[in-house]
Amino acid sequence: MENPVFLEIYEKMPQGAPGDDNSSGKAFSLLTELPENPEILDIGCGSGRHTLLLSRLSSGRITALDLLEQNLKILGDKLDKNNLRERITLVQGDMAKMPFRREQFSLVWAEGSIYILGYEKGLKKWKKFVKPDGYLVISELVWTRYDPPGELKTFWKKEYPGMLTNEKAMNIAKKEGYTVIGSLPVSGTGWDNYYTPLEARTGQMRKKYSQDRKAMALLDSIDTEIEIYKKYKDYFDYMFYILQKKDR
């Protein structure tokens, strides 16, 4: 069960990971063999930033999956406001146990969410849902330099021990039978879109939980991550990987 303070922090966040519409749009533009009206699955849709973008970039039907009911409620309100209920189906569920048919989707989109399963496991488990010649598009935190300072290595070893290099991430995708169509980094704007409101949110929460040691420890860890990014952002990045399922 998720920490209730963690959920309280993120329930009012505009997005749950670094990202922006421009970077997502560039990744989508590489899907040159996508059908005219594709079936799309958005895994870890959150409150719907990329779900709504996908609805603008394509004329297909979208299934938006998230584990948290409050995220789907926020997204549902947005669908009602934009008259999108007929095109977008909301599913509350676990990305590790998805109830979909084999080869149901022309595009599986997982922006900032595959880390929950682990990169390699996600590539393995989700492949069966992708149609032949269909696409899996993910964004994942990776090392972009091979000489990280000790402080940075220690931090990410604790927070995300499975963190890969950019090169290894692409090699694993190839090993799992995908063709790597391209990769591109999330823009600096995408990082700001995530960390700027998160920093403001932790500031607000400190006032409420000043006497709660566990809550303050969580807030400290989030603020440390933000400072690590500001100090060492040239050493790691969120990268989009645009992968196509091709027969071997």
Description:
This protein has 248 residues and is of the alpha/beta class. The protein has a domain at 16-148 and 160-187 and 238-245: Vaccinia Virus protein VP39 (Rossmann fold, 3-Layer(aba) Sandwich), CATH 3.40.50. The chain has nine helices and eight strands. Strands 1, 2, 3, 4, 5, 6, 7 and 8 form an eight-stranded mixed sheet that branches. Helix 2 (21-28) crosses helix 3 and helix 8 (188-208) packs antiparallel against helix 9 (213-232). The longest helix is centred in the C-terminal third of the chain and has 21 residues, at 188-208. The radius of gyration is 18 Å and the shape is globular. The N and C termini lie far apart (40 Å). The mean pLDDT is 94.
